[in-house]
Amino acid sequence: MWVSYTNDQNGQNHFNIKTKVFENCLSLHKFFIMTKTNIRVRFAPSPTGPLHMGGVRTALYNYLFARKNNGTFILRIEDTDQKRFVRGAENYIVESLNWCGIEPDEGVSAGGSYGPYRQSERKEYYVKYVKDLLESGDAYYAFDTSEELDKLRKEGEKIGQIFTYNAQIRDSLNNSIRLSPDRVKEKTDAGEPYVIRYKVKPGEILKLHDLIRGDIEVDTTTLDDKILFKSDGMPTYHLANIVDDHLMEISHVIRGEEWLPSLPLHILLYRSLKWNPPQFAHMPLTLKPDGKGKLSKRDGDRLGFPVFPLEWKNPETGEISSGYRETGYFPEAFVNILAFLGWNPGTEQEIFSMEELIESFSLDRVVKAGSRFDPEKARWFNQQYLRMKSDVELAGLFLPYLKNEGVEADKELVVKVCGLVRERVSFVKELWDQSWFFFKAPEEYDQKVVKKRWKEKTPVIMNELIKLLESQDDFSSENCEQAVKDWTEKKQLGLGQVLSPFRLAVVGGSFGPHLFDIIAVLGKEETLKRLEKAIKVLSAE
Ligand code: GLU
Fold first, then answer.
1. How far apart are the first and last CA of the chain?
2. Could you tell me if 144 and 229 lie in one domain?
3. Which of 118, 367, 433, 434 could pair covalently with 77 via S-S, beta carbons 3.0-4.6 A apart?
4. Are 105 and 249 in contact (CB under 8 A)?
């Protein structure tokens, strides 16, 4: 046997093993599955509220990429912005991923050797590296107060200019570039509030590469001196994010397009700290159904569908936003929907299990353009997953809903009912509307149908029908149907003349599955009872 080891341009390790015994052997496949590569990706949400479905998609793509490449998927919580911190949001994120089956290998709840995985617990690292940047001159203290900056902003507005804290102006502002080192020391010693900014060197054309968008060029003159450290002693997203990506040995940063404008600064920071940057892939935006604008958290239930994976109760206002889970989506369907929001396999196949997604996923099939969310298609996906369930599985899922309606039904009956109405629903909760008449007799009759279908002669016909059904020893759907058909022919009655009032008596309207299938499940006694009641009630009207 020989084993060789290669590293491809994605930084991915390949073990090549050959023996006669192993060739074409399944255990080789297993070996690949078990061997972790140095592909490490992270999902790094900020706990500023419930996770939006676009956020879950980011997590999913990272997860698929990690699994496909036998890499590691990390969940890191980016909670440096204390002003925007929302109670319960971290738990919500963990629970959402859990519901979707997106399982982190390392992270806040999974643990791991690169922790802590919550940025608020990693302050010492950020302090260390911001010091390095100050020492090398790539960062500087800025003492400008928010009032001073506001004033400059307003003055700029008056002459039609946007105030930018950058190389053109920083020499004239209240910072350690302009002030003497002694003066800076005085100020910091006196506890004067400051921020630390990155010092962008203008005039360079930065060449960036994105795995989805290709090569990008940015002139550093257009960049501003972003804040790395805030006056509250916490790092900003930019600093914490790149420090952690480096220390956690992240190989690929896969995140939303909204972070693309931050890429030049991140690349500059890597360079200043003399670190190799990871590879980047910025995913397309998820758009509203009409394609106009990003699907945002604020859309809530406004558009008639949830934007959150799980129901969310705002801890401040108590306001509830609906979730896919509570709406009745299967997690497998939700994952499938998200996978197709920006990726496609290049084939006709639309239904993908998580395993199949892992198998087929690749970043080169992620599209550049924003992906419109189609709520109708989402329903369709759920329906497909519902159809994959057996009648027994569906019955198990339906039982709690029946209980809720006060129905204690025999499981065998529920299984039969599910078999009859399953094609008519997209969600388990819709089963009740399609099948309640199996569990209780109608209490009223649709008056429109009564008017149209219950004629003067109908009670006589229904009474004869009762006699005919009474005499059937075999109350199966096929036998009853044949008997009724033969009888209507003999009596020269139109089928509609019989079947419409018959259905009205059984379900109270003109809906439901095949009538003879319904009565076969109800049984002779219940069917006759309903016919008798309809004759009584409707003839009296
Ligand atoms: N904390 C950022 C967010 O909330 C993470 C962005 C990134 O992945 O770099 O989306």
1. 89
2. yes
3. 118
4. no
432 contact partners, CB below 8 Å, separation of at least 6: 398, 401, 402, 405
Strands (E), 296-392: 312-313, 320-321, 371-372
> Which atom of ligand 1 approaches the CA of 254 most closely?
8
Clarify whether residues 221 and 144 are in a common domain. yes
48's CB contacts (< 8 A; 6+ apart) are: 81, 84, 85, 86, 89
Pocket of ligand 1 (CB under 6 A): 44-46, 78, 237, 241, 255, 259
DSSP secondary structure letters along 38-71: S-EEEE----SSSPPHHHHHHHHHHHHHHHHTT-
- Of the candidate ranges 25-29, 36-40, 266-270, the one whose mean pLDDT is the lowest: 25-29
Span 332-346, average pLDDT? 96
Torsion angle of alpha carbons 380, 385, 389, 391, nearest 10°? -10
Catalytic annotation present for 536: no
Does 418 reside within a domain? yes
H or E stretch covering 7: strand 2-7
pLDDT bucket at 12, cuts 50 / 70 / 90: very low
Residue 290 lies in a domain: no
* CA 294 / ligand 1 centre spacing (Å): 17
**Do 399 and 499 sit in the same domain of this protein?**
no
Looking at the domain assignment, is residue 144 inside a domain?
Answer: yes
Atom number of ligand 1 nearest to Cα 237 = 1
Q: Whose CA is nearest to atom 2 of ligand 1?
A: 45
Domain that holds residue 412: 389-438
291: left (phi over 0), alpha (psi -120 to 50) or beta: left
163-191 pLDDT, tens digit per residue, is: 999 999 999 999 999 999 999 999 999 99
Of 199, 226, 230, 297, which one is the catalytic site residue? 297
CA-closest candidate to residue 227, choices 180, 269, 256: 269
β-pairing verdict for 72-75 and 106-107: parallel
**What CATH number does the domain containing 419 carry?**
1.10.8.70
Residue 28 burial (CB count, 10 A): 15
Amino acid letter for position 33: I
